[in-house]
Amino acid sequence: MNNLIDRLFIKDYDHPERSDVRERYGTFASILGVVVNIIIASMKLVLGLIMGSIAIVADAVNNFSDAGASIVSFVSFKIAAKPADRDHPFGHARIEYVCSMVVSFLILLVGFELLTESFAGFFEPSVQTEGISLAMYIILGFSILSKLFLAFYNRHAGKKINSSVLEASGSDSIMDSISTLAVLVSGIVINITGWWFLDSVVGIAVSVLIFIAGLRILNDTKNSLLGEAPLEEVIRSIKDTVSNYEDIVGVHDLMVHNYGPNHYIASFHAEVDGSQDIYMLHDSIDNLEREINEKLGILCTVHMDPIVTDDEEVVRLRELTSKIVSESYDGASIHDFRTVIGHTHTNLIFDIAMPFEIKEKNNEIIEHISSKIKEINDTYYAVITIDRE
């Protein structure tokens, strides 16, 4: 069904990687969210006021906030689609993260207001269900189905265009359908038993669900804004592409910066045989940067690190050092290895790529590795730089 909707309402729907198509997905999903939420919120509000039900009014207010969130999403997609300019050379795609945070604050505010009203309802019983049970069943049932439809479509579109805003809206709609179902069940029970206090209990439960949804979205967005580790699939794709280039014998200092959904900028150091023709190697690096951009959509800068590969003593020392490091620290590796061989001592100069999971302090790591190297030969002096990754 979702694919049918895409075909009917989104031009060139099968090219979500294009910025203009991505904007169409976001615009359509946002407008759909505004229309559906305003309709079901208005129906619930009228029903809740007639019945004097805090839970139903709370659910209606929640839906109005969702309509506001959809408007925020609509604005974010319009801004994100703007091209890069002098003040924003990497584009405007990160606005989606800002808007996701705005949505989370709206949700948390609504949750707090509903929580206070629900507690007050324990002391002011006013819920009335006589004569309007059928209307309650129809309106709340329609609301549940509408919210499930929005949830599935927003998640579908969010995954298709890699949008945190739409995926957050999809998750919120799931929570909304669950809360409305709880309101419906409580209404049935109140109608049968007369236990009016259930209205406030369900109102509190709905508020808690709203809080949970808001905090989850806030946490996800906070990570994106602060800067988080790149997805494993992005790292794997870059390294798989590099592996096709025989001139490159090693990769290190790989950094991937996220400037919004589908907007990645990467850089890394590529180790090459220093005895090869520099122009040939430079041409190979250029081809690699171009392939990563065209194949993965990542703007990439590659720094070329020439290393010695034809000196048996240097190769032996590098392999020896690499073995010591990998055996001492799980997941650690060396790069930029070089030597300065003198009459009385030999300097082994290298960097260690050390996983963040290793909690040992850098000076302790350097001391440990240096002592291990000296155990092999006390004329070896290690000059070490630690890179955390």
Structural description of this entry:
Helix 2 packs antiparallel against helix 5 and helix 4 runs antiparallel to helix 7 (198-226). Helix 9 links the parallel strand 2 and strand 3 (298-307). The chain has 11 helices and 6 strands. It has 389 residues and is an alpha/beta fold. The protein has helices at residues 2-9, 19-51, 54-80, 95-120, 133-161, 164-193, 198-226, 232-242, 278-296, 312-328, 362-376, and strands at residues 248-258, 264-273, 298-307, 333-341, 346-354, 380-388. The protein has 2 domains: 2-226, Alpha-lytic protease prodomain-like (Up-down Bundle); 232-388, 2-Layer Sandwich (Alpha-Beta Plaits). It is 63% helix and 15% strand.
